[in-house]
Amino acid sequence: MFTTKHDIDRHVRSAFAKLRTDNEKNLRGYTVAKMYYKIGEYPSAQHYVSAYISVKKDNAAAYRLLGKCCMLQKKVENALEAYQKSLQVDAHQPDLVVEVSKILLSDDSNLTSSKLKFWKDLVLRDESIQDDAVMNLRFKLMSKSSSSHVVEDVIIKEIAKKPNDVNLRISLLKQFLDKKKVSEAFRYVSDIEVKYHGQFLHSLEWYNTVAMVLSTYKKTETTSAVTNKDFCCLYLNALERQIYLNLEADSALASVRGGNVSECARVLFELDQFLYQFSQVNIDLRAEVAIQLVNYFRGQVCLHAATLLFKRDFTGNVEWQDAVKSSLVLLLHAYQCGSLEIPDNSMRQVPEVMKHLLDQWQMRSAFRCLQAGRTLLSACQEPRARQKPTEKSPQLPYADREELLMQIRCKCSNSSWRQGLFKLLFKGSDQIGAIGTSYLTTCASLTEPLYELPTTNQIEAYEKTSGLLNPASLQHQVYVRLKSRTLSECDFTGFDCLNFSMSNLINCAPSTLNQLDIETFLYATVIQTRRELELSTQRNPSGLPGILPYANILWKMCSADQSNWWSAAYKITTNGAVEDDGLEVLRCVGNPRMDAMVALKIGQTLQDRLEGHHTKKSAERNYLENRVELFNKYAVRQLKRYPNGRLCPPGSSSSTPHRLR
């Protein structure tokens, strides 16, 4: 109602002029305070709510508002006192306990507050609130007043109740480190990475903690750590995951891209240095295993280094062209490292930890080859594209494969190109001083690559394995299929538990979700993303390849709504509303929300799939035929209504893509 302080001041003067006593005015204070609070006038809000409390001491909400006003004015002590009184009036405010726990954890000086005793007694006595902040505060307070084994026992009991809670695992590891139990922390990390590796695979916080534990262990066991096979596998894997997840997190929000670049560079430096140490030490491994292990991480280092260079803001800088050329050399090396393959007769020599990581490493190496190969081929014009003068050609860096290879050869002809690369990647003075112990600058295999680009067929051979890596991520699945020539033949096994399809497509309840719904959704998203990338490539002024490594463009793969729908579908039972709305779009039910051109391309993809699989069961063929007819009829209806095929302007919200032009 009121948007400025002046408006509220005038309203309050008018209202209070009609009141006779101060008591009546004070009783109106809470209502007035809320008005000031809404427009950000916190001192005024604090004044009026304090006046209200002076005559009305049994309103928990008023004390809570007072606490908020104090917090927003950085008056932490006063805020804690107000929150305490609010809880003393009404003890059933678990969200307030969570809020206070976050305040106390935000600064250790808060834990010396004169008001701490109340909060300490509260969180230690009441175990009904299971929020992470409350639990962490409980552990922190217990560690100050109890013996270490008591705190550890409490955390272990909580873990038994919630074994997949990564924050509890992290708390236990930090407890071990605080009590200097480094060897115990190392054994725990090793055990969890073997038993629960898949659960925490995408948790940056987990791998930050694992890397901290292993780094501490390395400093403690300086002589034996580098020769410990399990330690080396764990440490190399943790550093590599840290880099990947930081790069991925950096891309998640387009508005803050670049925020994690320095952290990525720091961890990449650690991986580069440790890989050099690892390659210099004679570990008790069969030659084939050791070669494959080093080869795998060499490829990952090259891919992540190239991704990091593409993330750096070199625009308008003289280093830009040098960075792009260095990235292309790195990507060719990353591709030529190939996928991880351990011969069967060597498996007995594989470290126990490595055996459990092997499946993931094989999928990651395939995905690395897919990213590197596609980026390289997208840097030059394809012969078929050059034969179409009527189409607007993309502004790609190189005219053909020969020119690209010539530039790579020219780059590698400079014997100091890797030293220049090192200085592009690592800017710190202490890092520059370690150039002599860098794997990137000393590895003979990285001097120059084999001057041969992969073929499209060779790259597509990695699609199936790459798709297995992260079925829960729509961004990942779209990227894997981004350049597939036969989208209808792409295998997808992420939703095998669902029925293939159903006859009644009018019923869009979440329980009717099926494989063909999922695959149709994926086709639609891929079709949209392809077109948007094609358009951006045609307008490309930067000299970058048309497709970059995954972490550089994952935020372009789909919208937030699409990603949320996919995640909800993956969990099946967690978000029926999102699934229900998306199913109506996918089955062309209700109001039209898909562009006609997208529907036509989906129909063609399903038709290609129908014609390419003659051994399909008759029921599955019928389902496919029904879907083809459904999308074609829908497209015809929409083209009659909207001749240009567009349903609504760009930027409109929908669970399914509709921005294809």
Short description, anyone?
It contains 32 helices and no strands.
Blueprint (SSEs and pairs):
Elements: H1 5-16, H2 22-27, H3 29-38, H4 42-55, H5 60-72, H6 76-89, H7 94-106, H8 116-125, H9 132-145, H10 148-161, H11 166-178, H12 182-195, H13 204-220, H14 229-252, H15 261-280, H16 287-311, H17 320-336, H18 352-377, H19 383-386, H20 401-412, H21 417-425, H22 429-432, H23 439-442, H24 456-460, H25 463-467, H26 474-480, H27 515-538, H28 550-553, H29 560-571, H30 576-586, H31 596-612, H32 618-641
Helix pairs in contact: 3-4, 4-5, 5-6, 6-7, 7-9, 9-11, 10-11, 11-12, 11-13, 12-13, 13-14, 14-15, 14-16, 15-16, 16-17, 16-18, 17-18, 17-20, 26-27, 27-31, 29-30, 31-32
Question: Could you characterize the architecture of this molecule?
Answer:
With 661 residues, the chain is an all-alpha fold. The protein has a domain at 484-661. It has helices at 5-16, 22-27, 29-38, 42-55, 60-72, 76-89, 94-106, 116-125, 132-145, 148-161, 166-178, 182-195, 204-220, 229-252, 261-280, 287-311, 320-336, 352-377, 383-386, 401-412, 417-425, 429-432, 439-442, 456-460, 463-467, 474-480, 515-538, 550-553, 560-571, 576-586, 596-612, 618-641. It is globular and about 90 Å long. The chain starts with a helix and ends in a 20-residue tail after the last helix.
